[in-house]
Design goal:
The chain is globular. The chain has a single domain, classed as Alpha-Beta Barrel (TIM Barrel). The protein has an 8-stranded parallel β-barrel with strand order 1-2-3-4-5-6-7-8, surrounded by 7 helices. Helix content is 53%, strand content 18%. The protein is built from 11 helices and 8 strands. The chain is an alpha/beta fold.
């Protein structure tokens, strides 16, 4: 399973990239707004840090406008993937963008039906917001499993992207479900390193090493 980091904070992205486990980045208007910086500037800086798919979202809601905006944003860098909302106008825009060679991340998907249509339209990625589904009292991971099964049944090229991840267990469950990608907030990535037995073990090793006589030569 590939790991994307879900943030627009370039310092966090740079740190995560230094670990050697980041395959791409996803952003959205809310994440970019937090940075209080120019959208294009942020996206291009991210592209310089991570050599992989970088999702940048357009905010148009009409197919023609989506296509024009997507062409503009995609022209900034070859790694840019355009996030398109799962609405009828967005689905209408996806094959037009695919014909232009523009990759898409179909976002705000919450059901297997939506995942099926995203793949039929030719989306590159389908982002299933499992955390938001859980928040609403649904089983978000079940939708991930259903999408994985549907795509395998019919050989769709669209990749299942587990999004809206809340905690490390979501990552494990997404991997077990067969998701192609998990896009993970930086805080959750940090949490994935942590285990009390690792910390205790390291402290014990270092304490014992301090007792070992050291050569002076």
């Amino acid at each position: 399973m590939k790991i994307f980091v879900d943030t627009a904070n370039v310092d966090d992205i740079r740190e995560a990239a230094s670990w050697g486990i980041v395959d791409g980045v996803t952003t959205n208007p809310s994440l970019v707004a937090k940075e209080k910086r120019n959208f294009r500037e942020v996206v291009l800086e991210i592209c310089d840090i991570v050599d992989g798919p970088i999702s940048a979202e357009i905010v148009s809601v009409k197919a023609d406008e989506m296509v024009e905006d997507a062409k503009k944003v995609a022209s900034w860098h070859p790694n840019i993937v355009i996030k398109v909302p799962f609405i009828p106008e967005g689905v209408k825009a996806i094959p037009r963008l695919a014909a232009e060679g523009i990759k898409t991340n179909v976002t705000l998907c919450f059901s297997a039906n939506q995942a099926l249509l995203a793949a039929k339209a030719g989306g590159t990625f389908c982002s299933i917001f499992l955390g938001r589904l859980d928040d609403a009292g649904h089983d978000g991971m079940e939708v991930v499993r259903e999408a994985v099964q549907i795509y395998r049944n019919y050989g769709y090229a669209t990749k299942v992207l587990a999004a809206s991840i809340r905690h490390p267990l979501h990552v494990v469950e997404a991997a077990k479900a067969g998701a192609d990608i998990a896009t993970i907030p930086f805080k959750v990535l940090q949490q994935m390193f942590q285990h009390p037995l690792t910390e205790i073990g390291l402290k014990r090793f270092l304490d014992d090493w301090a007792k070992v006589p050291k050569s002076t030569g």
